[in-house]
Fold each of these.
Amino acid sequence: MEKKMIGIFSDIDGTMLGDEASLHELNVNLKKARDKIILVYASGRSFTECISAINDGGLIVPDAFIACTGAEIYINDKGVYNQDAGWEEIINTAGWDAEKIREALSTFVFLEPQAVTGKYKVSYRVPEALMEQAENLVKKELTSRNLNAKVIASHGIFIDVLPENCDKGAAAEYSAEKFFIDKNNAVVAGDSGNDADMFARFEHGIIVGNARVEMLSALVDTAHYRAKSNYASGVLEGLRHYFPAIFGGNP
C-alpha cells in the first residue's frame, strides 16, 4: 500500500460537523493535501449513518470509517467500503455477550435502549441530569455479573457498552498500523467523551473549541492542542499547528 505522510483521525458530530462555513474551509484544505493524508472518520454513528454524513452532511470521502464508537472499521477500496475482519476478530472476546448485557441493564428505567447498530455495541440514552449516576450504576451492575465490557459516556446523554478492548482509540491505533502511518505523524480530533480514548493513545490531538466538559475533564492533564475555534475550524486550526508545512501554519 502506498505510504502517505500523515494520518487524520477525526470524530464527526460536534467536531467535523456543526458549522457549514467552517466545514467548507476545512474541506478545501483537506482536498489540497489529499495526496499527503490518510483521512479516517471515527464516530459513534453506525456505518449507514456515517455514509449519510458524506451524502447529507458535506464531509469529503475518507479512506476509512471507524463506526459504532470503535466497534466496526470499514476500509475504502476503490469506492467500496469493506468491513475489516481482522478488527472484528480482535474485539470478539470470549467475555462479550450483547444479549446478556441488555438483560443485565433491562431493569434500569432511566436507560432508554437505542436502535441496534451492531453486534459489538449496546447503546442507551440517559437523562442528562442522571448521567453520572447512570454511568456508575451501569459499570457496577456489569461488574457484579462478571460481564466484561467497556462503558463509555458521551454528549451528556449517551452510554455505549462495548467489548472491553474496544473504543475509538484502539480502533484508530489499529487503523494507523493498517495504513502504515507512524503515530508521530498522526493526529486525532474530537469534542466529547467517546473521543477521549483516541487522545490517550496518540501524542498529537486537537480538542476543538466547543469540546464538552466531559472530555475536557478527562484530558485536563494532557498537552494536546486546545483550539480556540469551534467545530471544523478548530480542526483546521489544529492541523495548522501540527503540520504547518502541509496546511500553511497558524492563520
Amino acid sequence: MFGGWRRLALAIGLPLVLAGSGPAAAQGANISIACGALGVELTLCREAAQRWARQTGNRVSIVNTPNSSSDRFSLYVQLLSSQSADIDVLQIDVVWAGMLASHLADLEEDLGPRVDAMFPALARNNRVKDKLVAVPWYIDAGVLFYRKDLLAKYGFEPPETWDELTGIAAAIQKAEREAGNDRMWGYVFQGKAYEGLTCNVLEWVSSYGGGTFLSSDREITAQNPQARAALSRAASWIGTITPQGVLNYDEEASRGVFQTGNAVFMRNWPYAWALAQGEDSPVKDKVGVIALPHGPEGESAAALGGWQLAVSRYSRHREEAIDLVRYLTSAQVQKERAIRGAYNPTLIALYQDEEVIEANPFFATLYPSFENAVPRPARQAGARYNQVSDAIWRTSYGVLKGDRAPRSALERLTDELDRIAYRARWQ
C-alpha cells in the first residue's frame, strides 16, 4: 500500500513512521493518516488514532510528514496529483482547502452538521464550491502578547489601537533602556518575506478597514486609503519601536526576543502562550494576551489559522477514513488535545468546558479573536493562492524595508493581482 509514499519519502530523505493497532485488528481496513510531524502533536494523534482502530477493528498507520508546512504541501501536491492512495487522511493548513479541493472527498453528508457547530469562519473556509473538503481540527488566530508587569510598572492599560500600541511601546522602550536594558524593543512581529508576513499585513490592513486584498466576489481591493495608512503605520515601526532585524523574523525568532524579556509587545499565534509560561521562561507569569489592536476607525482583525483533516478522493477505504476523521474531530478528542497540548478547539461548546478553561485560562481571552478571525483570500484565489500571497508579502516587505512607498507599492500589487486573475480567470 505504501510503495509510492515510501519511494517519495526516501527520495527527499523523509522519515516514515508507521504504527499499527496490533494483530487483533488484522482483518480490518488499514487507514493511513498524516497528522503532525513531531513532539506532542504526533503523540496525541497516534494515541487517538489507535484508540479508534481498537474500537472499530481497523488498523491505522501514522505517516510522519515534514515539519515545514511548505514542504508538507509540496509533498501532498505530488501525491495527490498522481492520484496516489498511499494516504487516506491528510492534515491540511487552513489555506490549502481551496488549492487541494479537487483532490479531496466531499464530507458534507457525513460531517456537515459537526462543522456547523464550529467557528463560522472555519465552516466558510472549508466549504469550496458547495463541497465540504475538510473538517477543522484546531484553530489559530493572531493575538497580541504583552508584558503586563511592564505596563503596570509604567501606568499603562493594554492598547486597543495601533496608535496606542505605538505610543506605549515607545515610552516603555525608552524608560527600560534608560534603566539599563539596551536590548529592549517595543514591538516584534513576523516581518520575514514569507506567508507569516501575509498574515500580519492582512491584520493591519483589515483592522484599518482596508479589506482583505480580494473581496468575496474576487474584486481586487488592495488600493485604498485605509490600506495605505496601515502600511505607513507598520513601516514607521521599523528602527523605532521594532528592530531592523524583524525583517528576518518568523514566529520563533520573534518569540525568542519576547520570551527573553526584550520586547514589550509581540504579535504571534496562541502556541507561544504555553512556552512563555514554561518553568524556565524569563517572562513566566508576566505575560498577558489580548486581541490585536485596530486602526482609528476599524475593528480588531486576526488572521485565521489552524489545521484541518481531509480525506483523499483516491482513498480505497473512504468510509473508514471518514469515520476516523469523525472520531478525531469529536468533542472527546478535541477536549483531550486542549487539556494535554493546549490545542485550541474548533467546537464552540468546548470554550464553556470548565476543565478546558482550567487547563488553559487564556482560551476565554482568545475566544473573540477566533470568533471574528479574518480568513486569508484563499477561497477566492483557489489554486492561485500561493501566487496571491507571494505578491502580498513581497510588496509589503518592500514597504517595510523602505524600498517603496505604500501608494506605489499597492498600485504595483493591484497590477500584479490583476495579472494573476487574468491568467487564471480565477478558475
Amino acid sequence: MSFPKGFMIGAATAAHQVEGNNTNSDYWAQEQMEFSSFAEPSGDACDHYNRYEEDIRLMSEAGLTAYRFSIEWARIEPKPGVYDEKEIEHYRKVLLCCRENGIEPIVTMHHFSSPKWLIAEGGWEAEATVGKFAAYCRYVVEKLGDLFTYVCTINEANMGIQIAAISKMYMKMMQQKCTESVEGRVQVGLNLENPLMERMKKQAAENMKVFGTPQPQVFVGPRTEEGDLLVMRAHQAAKKAMKEVKPGLQVGLTLSLHDIQAVEGGEQEALREWDEEFLHYLPYISDDDFFGVQNYSRTIMGPEGSLPVPEGNETTQMGYEFYPKGLEHVIRTVHEKLPIPLIVTENGVAAADDSRRIAYIEEALRGVERCVSDGIPVKGYCYWSLLDNFEWQKGFSMTFGLIAVNRATQERTPKESLRFLGNYAKNEV
C-alpha cells in the first residue's frame, strides 16, 4: 500500500518554539517573569530564524515534501498598526527556500504566541481582536500570498476550552488532595505542580506590571464560552480577508483532538467530550477548504469523566499514552461529520528512544493509508516536530524531533526517524 501522487508528507514547527528571540510576544514576556510557569526561557530556541535554510534542506534531502510552519504575528506587527517590512522579507526568504527545495509550505498565521500589545489590549477575550487578527492576515497575504497555497488561520483553536477543563479538574483534585498528574490530558506543554496556587498570586502582580492586568487573556489560557466563539469569528474574519486578496487560497484551521473512547457507563461523557472538543465548531468550519487534524493520543472516558492511562501501558515524555492508532480513529470520526479535505497538521511522540518514534510514525501512517484507501480525502501528513524544540512551559526537555539540536552549538543531527519518514514520502517503506 502507498499514498497517491501528490500526497504531502512533511514535518511541522511553530515560530516561537524554534526561531528564538521572539522578544515582542506574550510568551517571551511570560518566560522572563520571576514567578514564571515556564521551566526555562526560550532564548535562542533552535535558532531556526537564522538556520532555516539548513533545516529545510535536511527535510528535502530526506525526501519530505511539505513543511508546516508559522509566521509570527509579534514579528510582523510589533506595535499596533506598525508592520515590519524586514520581517516580511524574512518569511519571503523562508517560503522561497521551501519552493527551491521542492517543499510545499503550509503556513499557520497564529500558533499560540501573540503580540504582547494585543494581550495588553484585552487579548483573546476582546471583541477588537477579531478585526486586528483579520487585518494582520490580510497584510501577510498581500505581501506573501503568491508563495503559498495552504494556510491555517489558528492552531488548535480549541486549546483554551481544553485548558479551562483541565484547570477545573486540577482545582478539584487539589481540594480532594489527589496526587495524580493531569498534565498529560491536554496536548500542549503545561506545568501544573502543587505550589501552583501560591505562584499564581505572585504572577498576578507581575502580570499587572507587564500586561496591565492581573489575568492576561493569552491564547493558551482558560477560555470562556464567549472567548471560544470569538476565536471562531476571528478565524472566519481572517479567512474572508485573505480570500479577498487571493481567492484561490486554501484556508482552514486546526483543532487538538483526542481519540475519545468510553468504558462501560462512560458513553454519555464521551459524547459530551467530543462535542466540546469538535462537534460544536462545525457551524464555523464546515465551508472551509480543508481541516487540520492534530492528534497525539486517546482519552478514555468513564461515568465520572476522563480516566488515567491504563496501568502498564506505555507513556511518552509528555505523559500521554503511546497510542498511534488514535490518528486513524480520529480521521474517520471527523470525516463522518466534516466531509471536506483533511490534512494531518500534527501527529507525533516525545520519546528519548528514536526507535519508538519510528514505531509510532509507522503505525500512524498505516492508519492514514487505510483512510485514504477507503476514500477519505486526506491530503497530507505532517509529523510534529521537525526539531527537538521548546515545548512551551516544559522547556527543552521534551524530544519530539526528527532532528536533534545541540543547545550549546545549535548543531543539527538528523535521527533515523527522519530517514524513515522520508522513505515513506518516496514510497520506499
Amino acid sequence: MELIERFIAGFEGKTISVAVQGLETGKEIFINADVMMHPASTMKVPVMMEVFRQAEADIFSLDDKIVINNSFKSIVDGSEFSLSVVDDSETTLYPRIGESESIRELNRLMIVRSSNLATNILMELVSTARINTFIKELGIADVNVIRLIEDNKAYRLNMNNTFSARGTTQMMRLITEGKVVSKNASDEMINVMLGQEFNESIPALIPADVKVAHKTGWTGQHFHDTGIVFPPNRKPYAISLFTHGFPEDDENQAHNCMAQISKIIYEELS
C-alpha cells in the first residue's frame, strides 16, 4: 500500500481512488476510496445486474428480442432526447434503428464495447429506479444510478449517477462470490466481462494469461476501470481504479497510471 501511495503522490492535481478486496486472504487496499465520482460507463455493471435479476425472475428471457430505438426521456421533464453515434464507442446498432436484437446481445455490447445505445435501451426496459433499488437491496454503499446516458438536461442540473471506488469494488466482490442474483447469473456476468475489448488499464501490465473480467469507463477527465482479477492458483480479487483530472485529449496518461497501479497490486496479491 505504501508503494501505491508513493506512486499516486507523483500525480499532482489528479484524484486517484483505489479499492481492492482479495478473496484469498481478505487483504484490502483502500486509498481515496470514498471519493464520489461520475462513474462514466462503470455504471453499466449494475444495469447488467438488474437485467439478469429480471431474467431470473422470468420477467423476460435474455433471448427475447426487443426493438432498437434511439428516443429516450429525460428524468427532468420527460422531454425526449437521442444519442449521437459520434459519442458512442459502439456504432453497429445505429444503422439498425427499428430492427430487433436480443437482450443478451444488447447486454454484451453494453459491456464489451460499452455501447451507450444498448445501455439506454436496457435501462428503459428494466427501469432506472429498479436498478438503483437492487443496488441498495444488495447492501452496496455509495453506488447510485438515477439517469440514462446523455440525459443532458439532468446533467446540467447536477442530477448524475455517482459511485465510489469502495462501493464499486463491493459490487464486484459480490459478483465474484456468486451473490448477485444467483451463482449461475453471477458466473454469466463474469463471463460477459471476460470478453471486454478495452484492455488498456487493469489488464495491461499483468501477465497476459491472467483472466480479468472488467468494465472500463471514461468521460471528460474521468477515467475508470473496475473488475475481477483471477491470479493462477489463488482466489480472485475485486479491484476498482477511479481517476479524475487527467487530460481528456491524452487518455494514455490515465490508462498508464491505472495499469501501473494494477501491476503493483497484482504483484502484491499474487
